[in-house]
Amino acid sequence: MEEIKTILLKHGFSFKKQFGQNFLTDANLLDAIVRDGGVGADTTVLEIGAGAGALTRALSKAAKRVVALEIDKTLQPVLAETLAGCENTEVIFRDFLKADLPALERELGAYRVVANLPYYVTTPVLTRFLEEAELCEGVTVMVQEEVAERFTAQAGTPAYGAVTAAIALKGEAVITRRVPRTMFLPRPNVDSAVVRIDFEEGRIPVASAAAYRAAVRCAFLSRRKTLENNLMSAFRIPRERAKALLSEAGIADMVRGETLPPEVLARLADVLHAAGIV
Ligand code: SAM
């Protein structure tokens, strides 16, 4: 779609690296991302980072309603042009990380997130949906390929980390497509991938989501240390107590946190919670 380039040029737009501005223009790819996101005629979509509006426009065609947040106000004239006629679509010029998510959710009702995320804030943006959102049904996001590998990693592999375990509480992360760097304007230094996470309430049952997050933080506190040692430093407890808690959770003494799948971290979280530690 040459059109986007022309519109950007016409409005004298200059790309801002600090906002992670790498735009998509290929119509087939945009439609494929909309399909990956499970967007249909009944779906309300929240997009983070409208950019020049190419994905916003593709979403608008398929969805019931689209609300897009965009931090960069200089995109206003560009978006006015690219989204002309998209009656079901609204752009709010605001930093998503500072936005009032509960208020936004009251406005939206149940919604799905579809976004080509600004790479410098991928994890904080995703974390807001994992930890704060109440009406989000799922998230489909373009991220750096390496980050996508982390989101979908198996326990015990080098890519498995705190973010993988945090995602697992809400849903299974699946890579739906890989996207080469050549598809972006301007071209970034890395390839990307689209990851879809459908949120399933109670997927991994835990007594407290906050306790699960604390257990995950503890497990990955120091990757080279045993979980026992991490428990001692994270919660300032003596070795004997740490051993007893691990044994109650059915976890071997010398294990490293990074080898534990989310279900086992959930067991640890429940034990820590019942013991009043988290
Ligand atoms: N959706 C467009 C596309 O696919 O072509 C643009 C994607 S671009 C990778 C990311 C967009 O997010 C940029 O337009 C950037 O200005 C915007 N952005 C960056 N940080 C943001 C934030 N904290 N809140 C809202 N938008 C943000």
Word description of this protein:
This protein has 278 residues and is α/β, with parallel strands linked by helices. It folds into two domains: 2-198, Vaccinia Virus protein VP39 (Rossmann fold); 209-274, rRNA adenine dimethylase, C-terminal domain (Helicase, Ruva Protein, domain 3, Orthogonal Bundle). Helix content is 40%, strand content 18%. It has helices at residues 2-10, 27-36, 54-62, 76-82, 101-108, 122-131, 145-151, 162-170, 209-219, 227-235, 239-248, 262-274, and strands at 23-24, 44-48, 65-70, 89-93, 111-116, 136-144, 173-179, 184-185, 192-198. A seven-stranded mixed β-sheet has the order 4-3-2-5-6-9-7, sandwiched between helices. The protein has a two-stranded antiparallel ribbon with strand order 1-8. β2, α3 and β3 (65-70) form a beta-alpha-beta unit. The longest helix is centred in the last third of the chain and has 13 residues, at 262-274. Bound molecules: S-adenosylmethionine (SAM). S-adenosylmethionine binds next to β1, α3 and β3. S-adenosylmethionine binds at residues 19-24, 48-52, 54-55, 69-72, 95-97, 116, 118, 121.
Main attributes?
278 residues, alpha/beta, Rossmann fold, Helicase, Ruva Protein, domain 3, 2 domains, elongated, binds S-adenosylmethionine
User: What is the CATH class name of the largest domain?
Assistant: Alpha Beta
Provide the low-confidence segments as ranges: none
Query: Termini separation (Å)?
Result: 52 Å
**How is the CATH topology of the largest domain named?**
Rossmann fold
The CATH architecture name of the largest domain reads 3-Layer(aba) Sandwich
